[in-house]
Write a structure and sequence with these properties.
heterodimer, A: 230 residues, alpha/beta, 6-stranded mixed sheet, 4-stranded antiparallel sheet, 7 helices, B: 2 domains, 6-stranded mixed beta barrel, 16 helices, 15 strands, binds adenosine-5'-diphosphate, binds magnesium ion
Chain lengths: 230, 413
């Protein structure tokens, strides 16, 4: 069975008396270990799809199954717990908690799981080493560069060893060489640890690094191409 | 990095706003504490002077004398055995003052005025009664049955008399006949209380009682306590000492001096109303601060929910922030409140330039140098109230935080 399967997914938003169809009839399967990107211009429905896959939003029609769980059968508490343990999130920017240090931010999901301080410190220091941000543990987000902040966000996302990491335009606020480094880092995590990544982006650089490009236009699947990752 | 640490750091994110809120809360707490303690001190002082010149913390009356003031309701002190001594032996009793009150008429050779002939025990009374405080020893009454009298200052001028002059007091005797006594003015009572200065004639109680035909007759046994708080405890103990079937009752000062008790109640009620307004304004300020801090963090809260926190956790975070804000304010408020109270206890507020030296309040003289007294139980109570209030003030902002939908919040910029 696929890690993620979307079946005839639709999402409409009410806008005044009209309805905006953000996603229309999307059917998609993503396997464990994939490194895929949802591509498409702004407004094509990428964020909406990621939010639905991440159990942050509910579809108007169709079904979602992630890691063997049908979201329509889960209550909000179960969904929150599922997000905490099985989904990693990386957002465009400013997604760290400004009053926490880099290490505390990275530990946050483990803390929410109730893990002891000692244990999570150990896990985080290992991840910081892998991500090349060792030594920055005690810095506040404001004292980190954009690339460093995104690495801390990646650390937070992968710390609970989720089934999939969802990254909504993770490079949008980074210069291209920083974006390139970050993509290589995520690709390495994907290859070495088998972590599944699903991005959204309209950045050609991101698209070039993906193994699979799922193109959306006006909320519909336009193309779904496997490619040699660059 | 548990909830408390996170909340503490969040509280200090907007340093200026937090400081303003804490200053407002601490300042209000200080105002309420200091003004309460000031009133507490002033009331205590008035009650003290009221009970000493009036009917004691606890008074013993026969029948319904407390309400009717029917002067036929006198009773024989000696027939009650050693009641006076047995009461005096209880713990916490400062003085026991027997008194007789006879309304009557005072006549000089030129004028006559209505008076209240008050018979006292000079030995007990001289040491306690504030009306006698400013009178030099030679001008005081010495014996229970002498003809020496103290008269109110206004009465003295109206009767056109001087110290050493004689005058006649007439009251109704036991069978309705008129009884007269010749008295000599020994000293003058100048109290500032109109009723006292206009109509007081004070003599030894046996001299006054002779006019009733019973030399041991009294109307009131006024009991002064070491500490007014003992009143509740001592009333039943004193009641037990009263002979069965005697028709005597022990009555608290709140009943026997209802005027004073009501004046204090009314004064404190208006103050409470002001306290309420202060507290209300502060609460609105706290709600505003917390609400602003939640609204500024909508996106951040969205992220926290997205990565797996429950809404309950956000609610707890906001409430903990309010609790910390309240705790810090409580701490500083108490320090300021204690300093202000200390000043008001030691130095006080001197109103002598603004109000007459002798102003009446509820039938007693208002001391124009107002001094606070420590009411620590109240200070603690109001502090906890402020703490509780800040947590209550956080309920709405916390609910608002808990209702955030992450997908919507993260589109928020
Ligand atoms: N909460 C919302 N209310 C109304 N319309 C929305 C809402 N969220 C998204 N949309 C609309 O849905 C469409 C898809 O948006 P989105 O998923 O954000 O696309 P993308 O991430 O590709 O830019 C857009 O037309 C957008 O305006
Ligand atoms: Mg988007």
């Amino acid at each position: 069975m696929s890690l993620i399967s979307l079946n005839n997914l639709s999402k409409t938003y009410p806008l005044g008396s009209q309805k905006i169809a953000a996603v229309q009839g999307l059917t998609l399967e993503i396997q464990a270990g994939e490194f895929a990107v949802l591509a498409g211009p702004s407004g094509s429905g990428k964020t909406t799809v990621l939010n639905i896959v991440g159990a942050l939003d509910t579809p108007t029609e169709g079904s979602v199954n992630v890691d063997g769980n049908d979201y329509s059968e889960m209550n909000p508490k179960e969904l929150a717990d599922f997000r905490l343990r099985r989904i990693g999130f990386i957002f465009q920017s400013y997604n760290l908690i400004p009053v926490l240090t880099a290490a505390e931010n990275a530990e946050f999901t483990l803390m929410l799981q109730g893990m002891s301080t000692l244990k999570r410190r150990k896990i985080i220091s290992g991840i910081f080493g892998e991500l090349g941000i060792e030594g920055l543990e005690d810095r506040r987000p404001n004292d980190l560069s954009g690339g460093q902040q995104q690495r801390v966000a990646i650390a937070r996302a992968i710390a609970p060893q989720p089934a999939v990491v969802l990254a909504d335009e993770p490079t949008a606020n980074l210069d291209s060489s920083t974006a390139e480094d970050l993509l290589q880092l995520m690709r390495r995590l994907n290859q070495e640890k088998g972590t599944t990544f699903l991005f959204s982006s309209h950045d050609p650089l991101v698209i070039a690094h993906a193994e699979r490009v799922i193109s959306l236009r006006d909320g519909r699947l336009e193309s779904d191409i496997q490619q040699e990752a660059g | 990095m548990e909830t408390l640490t996170l909340a503490w750091r969040n509280v200090w994110r907007n340093r200026r706003r937090t400081l303003i809120t804490i200053v407002a809360m601490s300042f209000s707490l200080m105002l309420v504490q200091a003004f309460h303690n000031l009133s507490f001190g002033v009331y205590a002082q008035m009650v003290d002077s009221g009970v000493r010149s009036g009917s004691g913390h606890i008074a013993i009356y026969r029948g319904d004398y407390v309400n009717s003031r029917d002067d036929r309701l006198f009773w024989n002190l000696k027939k009650m055995g050693v009641l006076e001594q047995r009461i005096a032996q209880l713990n916490g009793i400062k003085a026991v003052l027997p008194r007789l009150y006879l309304p009557g008429l005072a006549q000089s050779s030129r004028e006559s005025r209505g008076i209240m002939l008050t018979g006292i025990d000079p030995v007990a009374e001289n040491a306690i009664n504030p009306l006698l405080k400013n009178i030099n020893a030679p001008a005081l009454i010495k014996t229970l049955d002498g003809r020496d009298a103290l008269v109110g200052s206004r009465l003295l001028t109206e009767l056109k008399l001087k110290i050493g002059n004689k005058f006649v007091v007439t009251t109704q005797g036991p069978e309705g006949q008129l009884v007269s006594e010749l008295l000599r003015i020994r000293g003058v009572v100048k109290s500032g209380i109109r009723e006292v200065d206009n109509s007081l004639v004070m003599v030894g109680r046996q001299r006054a009682a002779a006019m009733t035909g019973q030399p041991e007759a009294i109307h009131e046994l006024a009991i002064i306590l070491d500490n007014p708080d003992l009143e509740k405890k001592l009333i039943p103990l004193i009641s037990e000492l009263l002979p069965a079937g005697s028709d005597l009752k022990a009555v608290s000062w709140e009943q026997s001096m209802a005027n004073l008790a009501n004046a204090i109640k009314l004064d404190y009620a208006s103050q409470k109303f002001i306290f309420l307004i202060i507290v209300l304004i502060v609460t609105i300020g706290v709600v505003n601060t917390l609400l602003m801090s939640v609204m500024e963090r909508i996106r951040e809260f969205g992220v926290i929910l997205a990565i797996g926190a429950t809404p309950g956790r956000l609610r707890a975070t906001v409430m903990t922030e309010a609790f910390l804000l309240g705790s810090v304010s409580m701490l500083f408020g108490n320090i300021l409140g204690a300093l202000a109270t200390w000043y008001l206890v030691e130095i006080g507020i001197d109103l002598r330039d603004f109000i007459p030296e002798t102003m009446e309040f509820g039938g007693v003289v208002f001391n124009p140098v107002m001094r606070a007294a420590w009411d620590t139980a109240y200070m603690l109570q109001i502090s906890l109230y402020v703490l509780l209030l800040s947590v209550v003030a956080s309920l709405y902002p916390a609910a608002k935080a808990a209702r955030i939908a992450p997908a919507v919040a993260m589109r928020h910029h």
